[in-house]
Amino acid sequence: MAKEEQRTGTQELITGGGFRFETSYTQLPSVFYSFGTPGPASQPELAIVNMPLARELGLRLDELSTEALAGLFSGRDTAQGATPFSQAYAGHQFGGFAILGDGRAHVLGEHITPDGQRVDIQLKGSGRTPFSRRGDGRATLGPMLREYLISEAMASLGIPTSRSLAVVTTGDAVLREGPLPGAILTRVAASHLRVGTFEFTATREDPSPLQALLHYAIERHYPELADAANPALALWEAVAKRQAALIASWMRVGFVHGVMNTDNMTISGETIDYGPCAFVDRYAGATVFSSIDRRGRYAFGNQPVIAGWNL
Prior knowledge:
Largest sheet: 7 strands, antiparallel
Number of strands: 16
Structural class: alpha+beta
Radius of gyration: 19 Å
Number of helices: 7
Helix content: 25-40%
Distance between the termini: 47 Å
Shape: globular
């Protein structure tokens, strides 16, 4: 296991594993993020690690011991070059607008793959952030394993999606309907830019952060639009096309996202945030998978309409 002896507080710096971190997102105005380290995990243990995905990303996780991987993917220890931060964004949740942000997630940084792709590596369920409001910032094992399984199933079906690199248990109980085992998911995504990220900054009187976000999104995901006569309109059209293709792929396999809030719609066109979701076994347009979606806003058959509404 490759490690540095130097420690920062109680954290150990992990130098092995093949991580190549950069962080372009934090070059945006500071309203978009808040630096901060993941919360403590008393006894992290590795539940599952996605070695095939690791190899796709150019990571050499076999250089690290199981203990080191648990420390890394729990946020207890830090990979060389990682600069953890949480993102600010807003969103229409079931039609109602709210200022949100990563209330239980930390982006470790942007890993550069061997073929030059830039991907976010994020810990989900890693503790409180400035955006947590009254939440505890934690996640439980069941939903994290569920996201791991479904996101990897979607990837195998050829549907654009965030990916799951690992799940660790924290050794700490999380209080929901009762005490449940805590866990952290390591999520990989082309980025975590959302429709809600644009909504967040569009509410501000100063237009300069919105302009910065526009150019950043184009540079990161749609560089071919850099010289468009109207970059904002060109970006909207490009995102709309990707989302239309994505929703068609969902419908083709019977996938019901369940919570298509604008903070759960990515600019990259990837599926993200597998909360209440499922696959229907037969066509049933009114099927919902959120206990609070009593009016069927996010029903299976309504997903194309909601994608348009969000855009």
